[in-house]
Specification:
The protein is α+β, with helices and mostly antiparallel strands. The protein is 26% helix and 22% strand. The protein contains 15 helices and 30 strands. Strands 11, 12, 13, 14, 15, 16, 24, 25 and 28 form a nine-stranded mixed sheet that branches. Strands 1, 4, 5, 6, 7, 8, 9 and 10 form an eight-stranded mixed sheet that branches. A five-stranded mixed sheet has the order 2-3-18-23-17. Strand 9 and strand 10 form a beta hairpin. Helix 2 runs antiparallel to helix 4. The chain is globular. The termini are far apart. The chain binds guanosine-5'-diphosphate, 2-phosphoglycolic acid and manganese (II) ion (MN) (2 copies). One manganese (II) ion (MN) binds next to loops. 2-phosphoglycolic acid binds next to helix 8.
């Protein structure tokens, strides 16, 4: 063995997995941490980690009578969201990354990042986190191991994934796993004090789809550092799904039970900060309907033997947008958080040791804002970053569906695609068939949000809400979706129906036309009625849209003019959309499935354009 191998903890490995041992040693020798810790996922480990973070000033413990075992974290003001500009798909062939991803050759990226990682954990602890995405009881459990020098990441991964000793044991000595390397890129020199939120101005979030590896450097923010989430469960898993005939999607999963007791499972893909967590935890406003939560961000979908598409949530926690979350909008999230065991990042701290954010009722007189400054209701800036987050165990969700841990998943009846659009897109429309639904998904558009670094409010195409997460060529991804539509053994009639929703259309003065949140249950009811063949609809150029009388609006206090405006299909607005769709499709050249061009032609014809 090479000389500098005397890193404390390195030899205390609670595993004999040769590939894992060799990799951990190799990374330790490159990054030269002060010690190596093999995470067991125990309560004692959590307490040790969080109290060390509190002592170091990296976390503040909240008042345990209000928020048991919960903590407040503030990031560096520059490290607040996913960095799409710095995210790379390093496929061997550049063409396999496609026009929607940044690309660098794997060897070149590895060389560049190896130099960044050299000594990058100096003065820090390197944690080894064995984790499993999805139930450990799965036929083929989806293992990963993250190496990180961030204790914040360890604490967050304990909430967000199934991790620790039980995973290592299940891995035995042979199991395949996704190696996921993370460093904040901020070595501590001798005599130097640490900062509360270490990070590096240079950031790379790199994926090697062929070898199923993840290398992340420079950011501590969740989407860039909790590598089981976006990096593994979406970017790497989407490439696995392409190769193996399944789908890894940016989707919530919910269980909907009608007053008659009929159950439907619904998945929904909306871009980041466009309503997945809220819909997944929805409290219906219409009597007798019940929603239970299965997942709020990611769905892995495979065909079952019966030809239906089954969805599993690979995660174990909720990493939700804080602002706007309130007893009125999302009471089930508030209940989940009230049980404690949560980490809040970049929200505001109250003087009595609780948290607050915009949208949570009227503000207290004084707060400490997300930058650590005094804040009063007269302050000009927001108290919480618009992408501030809560990180909380899904098992605390009071409406968690018991099937959440079933490795077989749940059979999906309907897929909703949705975006955030002020205009054009009606509240809901049903696709004519699978290919039309794939067209709706492939042309999905949304205004950008604070979930990614960059300008907010700009309309962009975000296919299937996966623009930042497709781990390969988007044209091939569309082709994969079309192929999935053939079903198993020609059982295409068992596929989910596809719907396109928009909770965010605005009227005069910029106000939302549709009240959203719990009232979205009215749209879910219509979806079920369409599935069951009882719901009415008007055939429009963009699909089947309910007229106001097709929706259950009983007890809803919204002017009829607003409902009509929310449902309107304006041919003029849609005609303005066409050149943008053409431009978007042109990007994909030969890779764009011809059937999608045919869908565009058919839409043009229905809009009287040729
Ligand atoms: P996710 O990132 O896709 O999970 O989105 P969230 O469910 O966290 O919601 C993001 C933001 O949109 C939050 O500020 C929510 O309060 C807001 N939001 C969610 N659902 C609705 C809705 O139906 N109507 C409106 N107007 N806002 C919503
Ligand atoms: P979100 O998840 O979809 O809940 O915003 C985080 C993200 O996509 O960055
Ligand atoms: Mn997401
Ligand atoms: Mn969410």
């Amino acid at each position: 063995m090479t000389a500098p191998a005397v890193i404390p903890g390195l030899e205390q490995a609670p595993t004999k997995h040769p590939k894992l041992l060799a990799w951990v040693r190799q990374v330790a020798e490159l990054t030269t941490p002060q010690q190596v810790v093999w995470c067991d996922g125990s309560q004692a480990e959590w307490e040790q980690l969080t109290s060390a973070l509190v002592d170091a000033g990296a976390l503040v413990q909240l008042d345990p009578t209000k928020r048991p075992n919960s903590f407040w974290a503030r990031t560096d003001p520059s490290d607040v969201a996913r960095v799409e500009e710095r995210t790379y798909i390093c496929s061997v062939d550049e063409a396999d990354a496609g026009p929607t991803n940044n690309w660098m050759a794997p060897a070149e990226m590895k060389q560049l990042m190896t130099e960044l990682y050299r000594g990058s954990m100096r003065g820090r602890t390197m944690y080894v986190i064995p984790f499993c995405m999805g139930p450990l009881t799965a036929q083929n459990p989806m293992f990963g191991v993250e190496l990180t020098d961030s204790p914040y990441v360890v604490a967050s991964m304990r909430i967000m994934t199934r991790m620790g000793t039980k995973v290592l044991e299940a891995m035995g000595t042979e199991a395949e796993f996704v190696p996921a390397l993370h460093s904040v890129g901020a070595p501590i020199e001798a005599g130097q004090a640490d900062v509360a939120w270490p990070c590096n101005q240079t950031k790379y979030i790199s994926h090697f789809p062929e070898t199923r590896e993840i290398w992340s450097f420079g950011s501590g923010y969740g989407g860039n550092s909790l590598l089981g989430k976006k990096c593994y469960s979406l970017r790497i898993a989407s490439a696995m799904g392409r190769d193996e005939g399944w789908l890894a999607e940016h989707m919530l999963i919910l269980k909907l039970t009608s007053p008659e007791g009929k159950v439907h499972y619904i998945a929904g893909a909306f871009p980041s900060a466009c309503g997945k967590t809220n819909l997944a935890m929805l409290e219906p406003t219409i009597p007798g309907w019940k929603v239970e939560t299965l997942g709020d961000d990611i769905a892995w979908m495979r065909f079952g033997e019966d030809g239906r598409l089954y969805a599993v949530n690979p995660e174990y926690g909720l990493f939700g947008v804080a602002p706007g979350t309130d007893w009125k909008t999302n009471p089930n999230a508030m209940r989940t958080l009230a049980s404690g065991n949560s980490v809040f990042t970049n929200v505001a701290l109250t003087d009595d040791g609780d948290i607050w954010w915009e949208g949570m009722g009227s503000p207290p007189e004084h707060l400490t804002d997300w930058k650590g400054r005094d804040w009063t209701s007269g302050s000009e800036e927001l108290s919480s970053h618009p992408n501030s987050r809560f990180c909380t165990p899904i098992t605390q969700c009071p409406i968690l569906a018991p099937e959440y841990d079933d490795p077989r998943g749940v059979p999906i009846s309907a897929i909703l695609f949705g975006g955030r659009r002020k205009t054009t897109i009606p509240l809901v429309s049903q696709a004519r068939d699978w290919v039309h639904g794939v067209f709706q998904g492939a042309t999905l558009s949304s205004e950008t949000t604070a979930a990614a670094v960059g300008q907010v409010g700009v309309v962009r195409r975000d296919p299937m809400a996966m623009l930042p997460f497709i781990g390969y060529h988007a044209g091939d991804y569309f082709r994969h979706w079309i192929a999935m539509g053939k079903g198993v053994d020609g059982n295409a009639d068992k596929l989910p129906q596809i719907f396109y929703v928009n909770w965010f259309r605005r009227g005069e003065g910029g106000k939302f036309l549709w009240p959203g949140f719990g009232e979205n249950s009215r749209v879910l009811k219509w979806v079920v009625e369409r599935l069951e063949g009882t719901g009415g609809a008007i055939e429009t150029p963009v699909g089947f849209v309910p007229s106001p009388s097709d929706l259950d609006l009983s007890g809803l206090d919204v002017p009829m003019a607003d409902i009509e405006a929310a449902l309107e299909v304006s041919e003029e607005e849609w005609r303005a959309e066409l050149p943008q769709i053409t431009e978007w499709f042109t990007k994909f050249g030969d890779k764009l499935p011809g059937v999608l061009w045919a869908e565009l032609d058919a839409l043009k014809a229905r809009l009287g354009v040729n």
